[in-house]
Amino acid sequence: MTSNLLTLGYMDLDLALRVDEPLIPTESSSLVDNNTYERWERSNRLSLMLIKSHVCKNIRGSIPECDKVKDYKKAIEEQFVSSDKALASTLMNKLSVMKHGKSKSVCEHIMKMRDIAAQLKSLEIQISDSFLVHFILNSLPTEYEPFKIPTTHKEKWSINEILTMCVQEEERLKHENIESAHFVTQRNGQWKKGKSVGVNKWKKDVKAPFKRYGDKSAI
Which PANTHER family match (predicted)? Predict the structure, then answer.
């Protein structure tokens, strides 16, 4: 819309946007009045054509027809206001239900939430850092529960502080999981080895059966 207005101004066709429609000339109107109306009518007609040609097809049908460019411009603005409200509602719902999954790192997850907050800010909906921190902590899985407790003791955290701490906690959890897996593998290996040794010992302790009397193989 802004680029269209600049184009109209550059072409000196924005008269209909700046000035209300003058009185329609009559037979008794002066030459000046006739020229003024002709300039306004030309500006209005060409401005409407230009703006309509740049309106997206998917929203063009939802904008009511207007014969004056000022009214058409106002209708477009109202349409975008309602669209912005719908988008803001969608973003707020998305932010409130976001959960950190294992498909992305915690850093990517938090950056995504920051991006949504920035989009809301562009729609004139302010999300304070403390509120965003609350959303971030609630979005973390149960493995982060011990990490969440110390964060409640401080009144205010910055987003960068929470981001750094979450990344550190993620690395700690990864290291802990690796150690746990290694420990389980070692225990399983020792158990299998011990079981194998026990079986071999049992085999050695079992004596061969006595050969029957008269068996030729015993001679």
Answer: OS04G0629600 PROTEIN (PTHR35317:SF23)
As given in the structure block, the two tokens for residue 80 are 């975008």
The number of distinct structural domains making up the chain is 2
- Whether 8 is covered by a domain: the verdict is yes
What confidence tier does 117 reach under pLDDT thresholds 50, 70, 90?
Answer: very high
- What CA–CA distance (Å, rounded) separates 45 from 31? 21
Q: Is 129 helix (H, G, I), strand (E, B) or coil?
A: helix
Q: What is the three-class DSSP state of 216?
A: helix
Boundaries of domain holding 78: 1-84
Query: pTM (2 decimals)?
Result: 0.53
Is residue 164 one of the residues assigned to a domain?
Answer: yes
Give CA–CA dist 27/49, Å, rounded. 29
- Pair (185, 103) in one structural domain: yes
Residues 46, 35: Cα–Cα separation, whole Å: 16
